[in-house]
Design a protein that fits this description.
The complex is a heterodimer of chains A (204) and B (452).
Chain A: H1 4-27, H2 53-73, H3 77-85, H4 92-111, H5 119-128, H6 133-141, H7 144-150, H8 153-163, H9 166-171, H10 176-202
Helix pairs in contact in A: 2-3, 2-4, 4-8, 8-10
Chain B: H1 2-18, H2 27-33, H3 38-62, H4 68-88, H5 92-121, H6 123-151, H7 154-159, H8 161-173, H9 190-217, H10 222-229, H11 231-246, H12 250-269, H13 277-302, H14 308-354, H15 360-375, H16 384-390, H17 398-443
Helix pairs in contact in B: 1-5, 1-6, 1-8, 2-3, 3-5, 3-14, 4-5, 4-8, 5-6, 5-14, 6-10, 6-13, 9-10, 9-12, 9-13, 9-14, 9-17, 11-13, 12-13, 12-17, 14-17, 15-16
Classes of the chains: A mainly alpha (204), B mainly alpha (452).
Amino acid sequence: MTSRFGLVGMPAVAVVLVCGVLGIQLAHGGGRFEPLHPADPCVARTVTSQAEGIDALTERLVLLGLDGAACRLGISREAFTLELAQPGPRTDEEVDALRAGLLDAVRRMEDDGTLPPISALVDEALDNSDLNGFLKAAIKALPDSVIDAALKTDDVLTRAIDGLDLRSILENLDDQQDLDRQMNAAVEQAVKDALVDRLKGLLP
Amino acid sequence: MRRAVAPLLALTVALVLADSAVVTLALPDILRHLDTTVGEVAWVLIAFNLVLALVAVPTAVVFARAQPRVVSAVGIAVFAGSSAACALAGTIEVLIAARCLQAVGGALALVGCLELLVELYGERRGVAVWVTAGVVGTAAGPVAGGLLTEAFSWQAIFVVQVPCAVLAVPAALAVAARPALPPDRHRPAVRPNLTLALLSAALTAALFLLVLLLVDGWRRSPATAALTVSVVPLAALGSRPLARLLRTPPEVEVAVGCFLIAGGLVGLAIPPSASLVWTIAPQALVGLGLGLTVDRLSAQTMEMRLPRVHHAGWTIGARHLGVVLGLAILTPVFTADLQDAQAPAQEAIASLVLDAPLRPEGKIAVAQALGRELAEQRGQVPDLHRAFETADIAPDERAAAAQLERDLDAQLERAATRAFRDSFLIGAGLALVALLTVVASLVVPGGRRVTR
């Protein structure tokens, strides 16, 4: 005959072993070893950059803009980025969401004081521009207070974003030269428009 | 020579049953070498088990009255020849055809060797040696296959089988066993065979999925994977002394084994990280369960049942039908889960690249290289290291890029682990259904009494 120990001994050992193994695994994060879940793009996140000057400003603007656009579209920032990485035409909804997201980003950076004054960017912008040397030297000679009084960063950025052909840019993201050319042209036009409006404002 | 006869016959049984899963770790190499698809390469595994399952019983019935030594010798010779054909196969079609022939030869060899081992050792010990050799072969198959693939090539798996089998042919012919001609008076043991089939399906999850997770998901070498899964056969060896120590009745032993396999599979479904250490304890549970169940159930299906070879045929058929069932259930599940895992993995990668402590040009370079690599992945886990090697990254950002590569690899490991979770849990479910069949036999009136 089988002893009672024989009937319950091994089942008891098995239960202890299985519970012990699973318990230890769960206690160390078992079951939660999954890919990173994308953050909610509608919740403001802190965005930093390893770059400096205009590159840093552009990077932060784009990252915040992607958040804003993804929030409007109801998807994650990562899903929207991966969607933009695919070649092909863009929908009106995507283009509009990205433009609105970028404009939101400008407002947010202005509100939290992380938007640099235009004088902090002007030397770098002039170095990258194809203006003639005398004009560059003349502008560089202007005091920062004069430049900042004449141009506001948020105003220039808003005008530049409004003027960008985002559909064309998004459809040719691989063409870095075309991207730079379009960005420079939009910023230059925005500066001109801002200055013209400023001068108009000074006239009686 | 006479002293080597029985070990050679037992080795043949182990070799044939090891072939059930021996190619598991070699599948990625076969896929590349024969330039085939994931769906086709799976048939290298499925074909052998399916043919063995289908021909085991007919072989046993047809050849029951033939000379066992002749049946064995012919079977082993066919097995050896088809193993050589597998090694020489230049296309996936030839390899699958050779595997089918290997299974036919294997079925003949298994049926013949059973009679020869009984002739050499007597009924009880002969059956025990046959069953034990099969369990050892089944458990050790993936380990041996992985080590041979890593050390030489996938063809080596089949090459090493040829001399072993060739030596076993004269060994089989040396045993003067007469065909057993008892009346066919016992029905197949349905319940133990059903439990065996369900457990084989569950064990397929343990052995087949785990090696795939280790090699394809966690990108470990076949040798590392082989050494890791060696925990299963080692733990299986430890189960018998444990059962003797606790004086457990056979039915309780089988029930406990099913429970341990289910628990081990749940453990494999929820590792806390991609460290190999976390697979050891779950594998030990599976190994203990394997050791407590498969040989005991195989013996139950043949014990006191005549003609012996018929019931051996049913046992082989049930076991390999279970393997095919496991592959049939699990392959589409984990294939679909791997497909589904791509989107969250890509989002996790995008998130880390966007927030990486790199300058914008560094991020763009990494993103472009990753994009190229992901486009070339052909449904497999991508090799991110290649992407980082080709990305144009400034020297002062190499350390940050290396950290990003490690973080991205961790995300891929997480995605792969998550993708295998449901399949391991289904395997655990199969083991629990096997447990139910055992429990039902204990509680249903007319079921076996729990006695030693």
